[in-house]
Amino acid sequence: MKQAIYWLMGERAGRTIVGTWNWLWGIPVESGGRVAVSIAEESLQSMQVSVQKLAEAVAMQVGSYERAKKKYTEKVQELRKFEQQAALAQQSGKTDAARLAMTKAIQIEQLLPQLEGQVKQAETFVNASKDKLNRERLKLEQYKTDMENMKDLAEINSALESIAKVNNEFDIGSARSSFESAKNAVEGRHLRSNALAELAENPNEKLAADLDQLTIDDEVSRRLEMLNPSTLESSVE
Questions:
Q1: Cα–Cα–Cα angle for 99, 104, 110, rounded to 5 degrees
Q2: What's the sign of the alpha-carbon dihedral 141, 144, 148, 149?
Q3: How many CB atoms neighbour CB 73 within 10 A?
Q4: What digits encode the pLDDT tens for the residues 78-87?
Q5: CA-to-CA separations, 209 to 201, 202, 203, 212, 221, in angstroms, rounded
Q6: What is the DSSP string of 72-118?
Q7: Average pLDDT over residues 195-212
Q8: Which residues of 207-222 are buried (b: 16+ CB within 10 A; e: fewer)?
């Protein structure tokens, strides 16, 4: 599916579409989680493929340059050969042969500037392509390092999130606060109940009850006093 999107839309647009699709499912790249790492890995793989293609293109340019340079060298050698043939034929009195050889030499001589320009242009292109390839390779190595750092950072973030989750699930401070609130509520209700009980009691009834209790206590004491032996003897006499 993903490769089909890349093929239809191109790598850059394809990655954008895939990222948007992840966002629609609620897993945006900006979350910085596994999705971001996964998309970064996909982008790194795409860059690796692009650098490989660039290296192949540079290799083809180098091949063309080497062929052009070889062709130029061969033409220079042919020029020298025809010039030598013309000189030998001239020395031997073979005028027609000398003219023919010199004609070919002149034709090659007229062609050499064009070949030389093509060779220089090919060399310029090759050097530029090599420089670009080297830069892209350096960038790729940097991205590989960033990728490893990104994975490590994502793992650390995941660990920190797990720690935060555990702390939230086992929030002792929150439980302690709830306990203190419950304790204060119970103690407050006890005080209110005592206050209500005291307010509900009739003061006059309490005084009467206290007097009755004092009377009973006094009577009990008197009766007990009567039970003492000395008291009994005096009462008999």
A1: 125
A2: positive
A3: 12
A4: 999 999 999 9
A5: 12, 11, 10, 5, 18
A6: HHHHHHHHHHHHHHHHHHHHTT-HHHHHHHHHHHHHHHHHHHHHHHH
A7: 65
A8: eeeeeeeeeeeeeeee
Are the beta carbons of 157 and 33 closer than 8 angstroms? yes
Cα separation, 141 vs 64, whole angstroms:
28
Tokens encoding 23? 């966002």
**How much is the pTM?**
0.52
The pLDDT tens digits for 124-164 are 999 999 999 999 889 888 888 887 887 777 777 777 777 77
Output b/e per residue, 41-54; b: 16+ Cβ within 10 A.
ebbbeebeeeeeee
Q: Return all residues near 185 (Cβ < 8 A) that are at least 6 apart.
A: none
Closest by Cα among 44, 64, 57, 54 to 151: 44
Q: Which residue has the tokens 């005592």?
A: 194
Strands (E), 10-99: none
Q: Are 103 and 88 a contacting pair, CB within 8 Å?
A: no
Read off the tokens for 197: 């009980």
Structure token pair of residue 71: 């062709």
Concatenating the DSSP letter of every residue in 150-187 gives HHHHHHHHHHHHHHHHHHHHT-HHHHHHHHHHHHHHHH
